[in-house]
Amino acid sequence: MIDSHCHLADEAFTSDLEATVERALERGVSGALCIVDAADGAERARAATLAATWPAVRFAVGVHPHHAGEYASRIAEVDGLVRAGLDALPQARAVGEIGLDFHYDYSPRDVQRQVCRAQARTAHDLGLPVVVHARDAEDEMVDLLLEVGRGALRGVFHCFTGSQESLRRVVDAGFHVGFGGVLTFPRAHDVRTMARQAPLDRVLIETDSPYLAPVPHRGRRNEPGWVTHVAEALAVVHGVAAPVVIERTTANYQALFRPER
Question: Which residues lie below 8 Å from residue 210, measured CB to CB, with a gap of 6+?
């Protein structure tokens, strides 16, 4: 199975990276997509170490909407920054995570839009999928991607927590949805409803580690090996066996990110 969204190049894994990878492999996690901050030189260096430690890992490089405000006066630099980050990691397969976060609003909304649009254009020009962070902004995010990509952009809305209508729009627009540890939280009934309605040929499983550890590990640092709990929870809501979910989501990941190219 694949952890389709993690931050394994985060400094949280510096002291035990090899052990973390080994635990993932022991649990049947054959690969992962690691998100890398395009502007963080230290994280890019850790990503290179990760690539040597776990050859099956692939990367997405981008500017998170929380950090978009740092580019308010230099939007024109975003494209070059992302391209340089992609070039530095031969295993990069996507642009991200990019998006709009109108829940926390850590960056001004107009700047978030400009930074996101610039990166969506980069992905479209390079023929790469996007990894999308959308919080309280799913519908606007779909509109932006459709406008920039003219229907040709593909990608995943990771850690999906939107509405039923937003789910329909995301899927109809040709995008995947990712579900993570939140799916296992006792009170996350709405998320399980969304997961049940999402067609399995458009679903990915993820950890978002080191964040959002699933039950029974809540409160601890999350890690890719625990994506197994997400697969099991998704199997329950769809009423199928876990191997069915694992096979389907692995195929979805391979089709979207083309890790072997």
Answer: 7, 10, 12, 13, 221, 222, 223
Residue 130's pLDDT band, with cuts at 50, 70 and 90, is very high
Classify residue 106 by its DSSP letter: -
Residues 189-218: pLDDT tens digits?
A: 999 999 999 999 999 999 999 999 999 999
Other beta carbons within 10 angstroms of residue 165's beta carbon come to 10
What does the block give as tokens for 29? 């996690």
CATH architecture of 2-257: Alpha-Beta Barrel (3.20)
* CA 190/CA 183 separation, integer angstroms: 9
pTM of the model: 0.97
In what order do the strands lie in the sheet containing 31-37?
Answer: 2-6, 31-37, 58-62, 92-101, 130-135, 155-157, 176-179, 203-205
